[in-house]
Hints:
By secondary structure, this protein is of the alpha/beta class. 39% of the residues lie in helices and 17% in strands. The strands form four sheets. A seven-stranded parallel beta sheet has the order 3-2-1-4-5-6-11, with helices on both faces. The chain has a two-stranded parallel sheet with strand order 7-10. Bound molecules: nicotinamide-adenine-dinucleotide (NAD). Nicotinamide-adenine-dinucleotide is lined by residues 10-11, 13-17, 34-40, 60-62, 77-81, 85, 96, 100, 118, 120, 176, 178-179.
Amino acid sequence: MTHWGRTVVTGGAGFLGGHLCERLLEQGAEVVCLDNFATGRPGNVEHLFGHPRFRLREADLVRPVEAEGPVDTVFHLASAASPPDYLRLPVETLEAGSLGTRNALALAEEGGARFVLASTSEVYGDPLEYPQRETYWGNVNPVGPRSVYDEAKRYAESLVMAHGRARGADVGIARIFNSYGPRMRADDGRLVPTFVNQALEGRPLTVAGDGQQTRSLCYVDDTVRGLMALGARRGVRGPVNIGSDEELSVISLVGLVASLTGTRSGVVFVERPEDDPRFRRPDIRLARELLGWEPRTRVREGMRRTIDHFVELRNRSGRAVAS
Ligand code: NAD
């Protein structure tokens, strides 16, 4: 079992960050969660508030942050992640990737801590190689609207590698593919919460283009386990793909949501957004080899748990309104 010691999670009040904080506490870590609540919320970690080894600090990583004690590991997740969020916060997203990554690295380097960057499959852009291996350099439009996210993460990767090579920092890069699960924001614009909430509200499900574009969806518990496996392997830099290689078309995801929720509200087709990648599927052989990691949750099971979460939320808010 890994001795985590004092672990900093930037962006810890976000979707992935909240789950990561929870798992780290389960494994004995002392967790300092740093967040400016740009896209996350304290509600994602409120169930951890009374925990003696958990602390939430409001902090903007774009400015230098004091460690306020020794640090053993830093997981750097602070960045808008969903397209509507980063399109709404373009400059903030570039700054989180650049200045935010620099300041997060500084937190780690002072005490020789292990540093893990939450990078993204978006560094591959609209990929010309399929499935995507870590050796693929990507196909990104540097001036397209999505570049604020893609290029911020590409720069962050470059900065992290430079600190590893030139300054001997102990760094690792996880290229995370689409992840989903409980506690995603209903309005965050990503496929799964959008479809699930449309279905639960009896509205038609909106599909971009013809729905034949594919996505590989990784359940949040698997993603977090992958991040932690990389965090635990000191000296392993990667980059390492963390994602599911169970690929499905958007239209078949719609079918799955419809069958699990029982909705009969149908589908409407809308225009595909600019730069929207057509195919996405990771090659995860490196993660298997280096980290002994692979996803365990089949998409049907993960979707069932996610739908249960959103149903529970709706029931709770219904009860709150009624009382
Ligand atoms: P999220 O938006 O739910 O969480 C990001 C968190 O970072 C939020 O709590 C936000 O308030 C915080 N944040 C943003 N800018 C900050 C700043 N300057 N200072 C401090 N906190 C800041 O997104 P998520 O889905 O949990 O993603 C977490 C990380 O994982 C991101 O770096 C994202 O790029 C990466 N990632 C996520 C996915 C996915 O499918 N969820 C896929 C690839 C990569």
